[in-house]
Amino acid sequence: MIPNRIQDLVQTLNRVCDSLAPMAFMEVCGTHTVSFQRSGVKSLLPDNIRLISGPGCPVCVSPQGYIDAACEIASYPATTICTYGDMLRVPGRHGSLLQKRADGADVRVVYSPIDAVRLADEHPERAVVFIAVGFETTVGGHAAAVLEAQDRGLDNFFLLTSQKLVVPAMMALLAEGEVCIDGFLCPGHVSVIIGPNAYVPVVQTHRKPCVIAGFEPEQMLRGIIQLVRQVAQHAARIENIYPVAVRREGNPVAVRIINEVFEPADSEWRAMGTIPVSGLSLRTEYQQFDALERFDVDLGPDYDAPGCCCGQVLQGKVEPRDCPLFAIECSPSNPIGPCMVGSEGSCAAAFKYGHDGTRRACISSDRR
């Protein structure tokens, strides 16, 4: 049974949407993607609102070359890979970290990068590599781990970084113009760190509304209502309806630590190519912690398995069910692409919460 407050919000949404042209809003947060599916909010939206899942899953946007580099390093002797659980099953061209572990590699799931630092401290004879994947939400923890390793004088702790910045990806999608986006439901977790003002370029350059919302059904519905109201007013502004967690200034302490250890850098995104200053790399004074330099590994080319539409799903060009592999060859138990692996992946969420057995042809990336 739908709670009364949710029914009231749905009625309000239908009222503000009445007589408006179709609108498409993108959420750039994997937690929003999962919450929309799991809560059923997506099914309550009016017919003239379309929700698009953007590149909000950090595991999914990491390029194929990064996965392959992680697997290559895992094969080296006296080396331990530490990673969050989602990364284990992401398929590379020559297997996954899970397969490498089955073959005898030392690959461990940890809950924090500090766990990897402690492991390096306890085992000085081994090189310990932490798979540093994530958006601004988790980068502060990666920076703190580097500073802790430095304080302990460790020379056997390294990061393999694939850290991404949300706003440059939003700007890149809008600049490409292939996907119609009328506004953004901005990520709550990331916004806790970067604050509302980070979205000023989206509003000023592209005139797109940005609303920061939490992850409960009520928050998400309120966020969509505010986006619709801005569209109806032909407005473009930043609104924060998640003030309990997101402050105007963001988290200055986290930002300071991040900026101390990392610096903005051009970064490769799966299927999106290199986006200028969309990632973070170790500053010169912390280069001794860079796994790519320590193991002299290069990131190879991006790649999607034949028939896999993960790259297009990440950019909102197709829905998960549009992929010809969805729920047929590709499933959580047999993932072909990363979007079916990550706990915040669009395909995994659609399979678990929204799969209705239908599918359509996957369009090519150059169709409009």
Summarize this, please?
The chain is an alpha/beta fold. Helices cover 39% and strands 17% of the residues.
Structure overview:
With 368 residues, the protein is α/β, with parallel strands linked by helices. It has a single domain (1-301), classed as HypD, alpha/beta domain 2 (Rossmann fold, 3-Layer(aba) Sandwich). Helices cover 39% and strands 17% of the residues. The protein has 16 helices and 11 strands. The protein has helices spanning 4-17, 30-39, 41-44, 58-61, 64-74, 97-102, 113-122, 136-151, 166-176, 188-194, 200-206, 217-232, 252-261, 291-295, 310-314, 346-354, and strands spanning 23-27, 49-53, 79-83, 106-109, 127-134, 157-164, 183-186, 210-212, 238-240, 262-269, 273-282. The radius of gyration is 21 Å and the shape is globular.
